[in-house]
Every structure is written in C-alpha cells, then in structure tokens.
Amino acid sequence: MHAFLFPGQGAQFPGMGKDLYETSSQAKELFHKANQILGFSITDIMFGEDAEALKQTQVTQPAIFLHSVILSTVMGDKFQPNAVAGHSLGEFSALVAAKALSFEDGLNLVHQRALAMQAACDEIPGTMAAVLGLEDSVIEKVCDETPGVVVAANYNCPGQLVISGEKNAIALACEAMKEAGAKRALPLPVGGAFHSPLMEPAKTKLAAAIEATSIVTPICPVYQNVLAKGVVEAEEIKENLIAQLTAPVKWTQTVQQLLADGSTRFTEVGPGKVLQGLVKKIDRTAETASGTID
Q1: pLDDT value at residue 294
Q2: Are residues 116 and 243 both part of a single domain?
Q3: Catalytic: which of 88, 93, 164, 263?
Q4: Can you give the residue range of the structural domain that contains 133?
C-alpha cells in the first residue's frame, strides 16, 4: 500500500513552489487562482526571498497548503494513494488531494484557520516546546502535574513530543521535563499555543466555516490527526477537523496505524522532508520518498 503524506507549518522556505509555477501551466493557473481567492499575491511572498514574511501564520499556512495541493495535482498518474494523512495543517492538503474538499474551499478554510489561530494567539499569548528523549507517558504526567495550561500537542515520533500552553506553564514544564530525564526541553519560535485549549476561540470561529463547507467522500481513507485512523465518512471528517485545533496531533499513532493497515511506501507531498524523517524514526524499514513531477 502507498500512503501520501502532507506536511504542516514549519516546512516553508523562501522560493517554495517557484519550480512548479515555472514548469507547469496547470500549476501556474492554480497559483493565479489562489492569489484571486486570497485577495493578495501570495506567490510574490512564496517565490521571494523574505523568510520573515513567509513565517507569518496567515501566509505560512496557505503557502504550505498551496505547495502541497498543487504538487499533488501536477504529479498526475504518480499520485495514486491508498491512503493519505497530513500533519496538522497538512490534513487540509490531504483532504483536497483526496478529492473530499475542492481546491477553492480548502484554500478558503486554510486562510480562515490561519486568521482565527492568529487572532487566538493575540488574545491569549501562549507558546510550544519540544521535548526530546522522554517517554510519552512521562511527558503527559508532567503536563498533568504542572500548574496552568500545558498539554501534549504533537506526538511526532517516539522520543519527540511537542507540548503547548501558557508561557509560564511551558517554562515550568520544561524544567520538570529536564529533571525527569529529558535530553532537551526547549521552547519553539511559534506565535501561540497550537493544539491546546488556548485555541478554543479559533475552534469556535472555524467550526462555523467547516460546517458551511461541502465535504464529500474521499477517494481513499484520510488518516486524521485526532483519531489516528482512516476516515471516509464526510460528517466524521468535519467533526475531526473542528476538534483538531484544540486536540493533539497523533502523528506517531497515525503512522503506526498506516503501517498496521499495510502501508509500506510513504511519499511526502509538499515542501521539505520532515515527515519522511519522522516515518523513518517510527519504522526504519518503511520506504520514503518526496513527490516529484519529473
């Protein structure tokens, strides 16, 4: 079985997508359409050299989504998934690639998601931290025992988990993680506490937009972050998308489930190779590759 994976925030880089724009008329058309939908020239930022401009949440999320979705489109016959999965934001890319969501609706939702998350960050400041070298259960216990809001947010691979919450609570938790034997516990340069209860205002805003959007049965199961299992029922997909903003990204469990369900090949569609690295850490024997158009 062949699974296609879609990266999330953090995979962006200056110049991303420019090769697609220059080599495919279909890609060029979709990029132009995206500029119209968004109401600003995201291609200028994506193809430019300003890394800081690209780091703004309201730019980063649509940029990664566009790179992934357009690449999956121009891959043609090379894109024949038995399953798809996306890391956080990447779940929206996966849904469009699997034909559950239209390009236009997917981009609109991602744009609204980014704006809602940014507004939530401005309203309730928070942050995230990466914890390396500790068992998941130990990290969860430390989070439970730390005063304030701090939760396990991204289960990336065994020995690598990201926590999310209030700044003070994150600082306290990082100290406690080191005392518990973590190799490292370091705050991340992010603008907010994603995948934590602090994203509740964003979840409320996005829920209305998702409910109003048409989602249909995908061409293959979509392994969603919230459940870490394949879903094909449109209503269930919507529920999981809404829950995703305040729930943890169960990436380790998702890859383990894909492997258990028979996936042996994993192709990452979009910028970077982060997900391929995580897959290899979960199962060294898995075959990984980047999506290409040549």
Answers
A1: 66
A2: yes
A3: 88
A4: 127-187
